[in-house]
Amino acid sequence: MRNKGLYIVSAALMVILGVSDALRGIFTPLFTSVFGFSMSQVGVIVSASYLGNLICLLFGGMILDKIGRKKAMALFIIALALSELLLLFGHQYAILLLGFFLALGISTLLNTTINLISDSFSATKSLMLLNALFFLQGIGTSGSQLILSAYSSSVSVWNGVLIAMALLLVPLAIAVLRMKESDSIQSGKEEAAAGSTHKIEIGMIGLIALTLGLYLIAEHGITNYIIMYGTEYIGVSAASAGLSLSLYSAGIMIGRLVLGTVVDRIGAEKMLFISLVVATAASVFTFALGILPLLLFVGLAISLVYPTTVSLVRKHAPAALGARATTIAVSAASILDVIFNALFGTAIDHFGYGPSMPVLVFALGISAVLMLFVIPRGKRQH
Predict the structure, then answer these.
(1) Considering just the CA atoms, what is the radius of gyration of the chain in Å?
(2) Residue 92 burial (CB < 10 Å; 0-12/13-18/19+)?
(3) Sign of CA dihedral 309, 314, 181, 67
(4) Three-class secondary structure assignment of 280-303
(5) Mean pLDDT, rounded, for 264-287
(6) At a CB cut-off of 8 Å and minimum separation 6, what does 270 contact?
(7) Which of 13, 31, 177, 211 could form a disulfide with 370 if both were Cys (CB 3.0 to 4.6 A apart)?
(8) Contact (Cβ atoms closer than 8 angstroms) between residue 247 and residue 296
(9) Are residues 111 and 17 in contact, defined by beta-carbon separation less than 8 angstroms?
């Protein structure tokens, strides 16, 4: 492995990002029962965090390409620490809204930045190491949910977690800044000077963004609606539906650790195609048979899709525009996801869960077909 110091910093950062991303859900009882906000106001916070993702990605891509990835990464880490401290004043609704807008948006930007620098970790196993980092993010999310849920109405625990994260983030930013250029990652301009000058492939990047958007529709659709689908349509208990959702999340985490070991050997595009085909088949069985625990296999199959698909974008852009192309592609996919979710709720109200949920399976299937066209022609013939 190359750049071990940068990888260790990235690993620690991903755990913190997992914790940060989970706070909004964990501490909802605090916002409603102690701070006195309504669920409608909490819903606005969710929408604001999606908007934060889009805006931070669009501006962050320009910053990454402009000042270089090392300086930008350190800047983003400090910005996240300040966002966590801002949330200390979250008993004022406007500040809570702004805090989550920034914290979740910057978290997504850092997530994407780590994806961009993953090629510096290894010449032959970069995707395996990248997916291991996303596994650690899952550990941060699930671990914080497990530990902190018992204190979901505690102001002191809320404040303590925010201060602890801010204090942990500062030395990580300093560590990134102190790394020699050879120990981190070149900026886009330096990479361009080194010889990567091919033209931006707008059509291919658009195809990858569409594939990613359809995948996000399926992944988030299952996460957001499966408990209601299980209780209201299939008729299982909330505990049973919740267990199935946990199996789905566990499948994603396990897959990133286990399947990540073979993705570099098989090739990113080919592995993504296989993953999406298997995920589509597994989801067909899940919904056709009404056996929700089969979501474990859906989770395993899709585990590599998000980080690996995002990593493809920079292959189709000149190095000087790699970060910007990646953040714009992720933003476009996120917009598609947000629009779909706004319409999907209406579809469920009109048609019910039975006819509506298969749309998620259809989205997975279409993403698999589109990925076939992303596979390089030489690999497709093997």
Answers:
(1) 20
(2) exposed
(3) negative
(4) HHHHHHHHHHCCHHHHHHHHHHHC
(5) 94
(6) 375, 379
(7) 211
(8) yes
(9) yes
Q: Global pTM?
A: 0.82
Answer whether 108's CB lies under 8 Å from 79's CB. Answer: no
CB 344 within 8 A of CB 359: yes
Alpha carbon 129 to its chain's center: 16
Closest by CA to 215, choosing from 343, 367, 329, is: 367
Which residues does 57 contact at the CB level (< 8 Å), separation at least 6?
105, 108, 109, 112, 327, 328, 330, 331, 334
- Tokens 């902190």 appear where? 148
Residue 41 CA, distance from chain mean position: 24
The three-state secondary structure class of 158 is helix
pLDDT tens across 141-192, in order?
888 888 888 898 999 999 999 999 999 999 999 999 988 754 445 554 455 4
One-letter amino acid identity for 30?
Answer: L
Write the CA distances from 380 to 210, 274, 370, 376, integer angstroms: 20, 12, 13, 6
